[in-house]
Amino acid sequence: MSRLEGKVLVAQGGGPTHVINQSVVGVALEARKFSQVTAVYGAVHGVRGIVEEDFVDLTRETTHNLEQVADTPSSGLLSTRDKPDEDYCARMFKVMQVHDIRYFFYVGGNDSSDTVRIVNEQAKAAKYELRAIHIPKTIDNDLMENDHCPGFGSAARYVAQAFMGVNLDNRALKGVYVGVVMGRHAGFLTAASAMARKYVDDGPHLVYVPERAFDTDKFLADVDRVYSQFGLCTIAVSEGISDAKGTPMITKLMGVEERDDHGNVQLSGTGALGDLLTQSIKKGLNLKRVRSDTFGYLQRSFIGCRSDRDAQEAREVGEKAVQFAMWDDVDGSVVIRRPVLNYSVDYELVPITLVAGKTRHMPDHFIHEDGNGVTDDFRNYCRPLLGSNFPQSHRLRAPIVSKILHK
Amino acid sequence: MSRLEGKVLVAQGGGPTHVINQSVVGVALEARKFSQVTAVYGAVHGVRGIVEEDFVDLTRETTHNLEQVADTPSSGLLSTRDKPDEDYCARMFKVMQVHDIRYFFYVGGNDSSDTVRIVNEQAKAAKYELRAIHIPKTIDNDLMENDHCPGFGSAARYVAQAFMGVNLDNRALKGVYVGVVMGRHAGFLTAASAMARKYVDDGPHLVYVPERAFDTDKFLADVDRVYSQFGLCTIAVSEGISDAKGTPMITKLMGVEERDDHGNVQLSGTGALGDLLTQSIKKGLNLKRVRSDTFGYLQRSFIGCRSDRDAQEAREVGEKAVQFAMWDDVDGSVVIRRPVLNYSVDYELVPITLVAGKTRHMPDHFIHEDGNGVTDDFRNYCRPLLGSNFPQSHRLRAPIVSKILHK
Q: pTM here?
């Protein structure tokens, strides 16, 4: 049991998810049960809120409103893309010290976990007593050590539901459809599109993830084969697909690029990749009705499309983070294990260095050997994460009427 | 009461909606109550299924499965963009005659209603006894004589929920966001984005509909003003926005165009307009984080986001179409009236010529005088159409902590 008296600070970093507020609320409600916690602060706009001393006092928030915010997508405490260096962290400490912050919980993905690692190292170097715990969150589902990450299930549900609708749409007015899904390096979210399939000829018929080199000639051959068979083709493509040399297709096809503060190429917020792929299909296969949608920000925080299981687990990782810090008096990263495939979870705390700044990719046995689809292993893995009451599509089974004129 | 004995034929045309199957099922179940109906056929792929004699026998479909299909988005009987001319209609009659079809119900939008008009005129000229009724459907909400159209409410709900999420996302990681919404000539669906707003500073802050000429300079000035005030800007733009001369902005900005079989410029299935607008904002206002999403096909058939009221009304227009044909023995187009703003509906049958091939636009009192937003009149009009249990976003109300270092 930690006897360290002081304040709790919780913050959110990186891209928002549907359930990230659950984790903050999990921290806030659980931390209030410990008498050594003198207050629970929330930093506004992540680490930037710490250096700028922008805190709100969650101890003076009602439980009802916390619960309402927990049910609201995106980051209630707002977010940041800032990536702290040594100097940045030194400034964070100064603020933490004057406010007597002794417990730091940061909800985020790869970049945010690396921030926790740096902060933790600096705290140790400065001999400042601080429990620093990373709470996992990412729709990309790409944090090491985790079976899956909070935020993924709800985004996966959105992607799967979107492809269910798109598949029905593309059946009604036949053509080729390309849906571009988020996922820079990991294909989990794009792979979730496959959960849309019910009938054997349902789309998506082809799924391309960044874990496999993208080859335009093979892609066109795949599309041609499906189109010849069904008279239509529905395709899911990860925004991060790259060629054999690792060059993102968007860079290759456009010849230009835009980078964010972390040096990442801009993939979302533009329909360019989808448009470039549809153009190559139109030209390469001489097809007319070829359309694309880029799911962009819609898949990340769409209100009303949530996995209840995802929300529950996001709450639990917040609670567990506090429990690890208080009862066990340790630092690290909370991870989700899955001892039973269908379905239970355990929460563990692992050293932050196992998670920080690393990327988990889809394992080989989740990807179809042809590199253009997923396996049953992936479907079994993904199904419970989508939550309960997952919608289904239905088809008419009315018998065909015998032709009289054209018999 | 019609004593005409023969078969009922029902078909779906144009773009799918979330609730179009409700109308088909309404026709099928209601028609079965009349002894003069010898069978209920469904045409596969709309009018094309008629000329090609592709029918299924809905009389041999179970009620349970009809109900399941009714709850499934998109066109269960599949659709077509074919626009029948005189010759096409002659071929349709031939098929109708040999199958003894005496009641024709076509669920669709502007183009489909025009098809019903042509078929009806040809039937009269050929002295072939046929009841032909148009059943309204369009997410664009642009059919004349209707207060609103089945399909709009569910698509409007999708657009509003999407903007609720996008608004939260854009608050967390501040920037400029452009969401491009369907609607070639009518701005109703784009205007529905305004239903996402709850707090006074919520987005969308700017809404542009095709009913007002789009001026890039004024647009940039609007964005600049909002961005200066809030440090962010969320924008809803109709895919069909055009300049003062009526040239679509997408044509103007790209310099090229693609047309479908009806001579319509391709607006959906490409992220081009969104990308062009973000580029003009980046360049014109020297802003860095500018993103766009094109809602495309996602907004039309997204499974799991449905207005229950929309579904009920789509069922009722199908039922009413059969009742008008059988009890009143008349042709025409079923329309929805709203005698009570909040909220009741009446169904009437009007001459098809009042609806066919015409486009209803947003009335002036729905559009803000600055041409970049909607009015309370529109909000009051739209609210009941979104259905029950419309989600809400919530914000933290925790008090701000006094600064110590930066005071």
A: 0.96
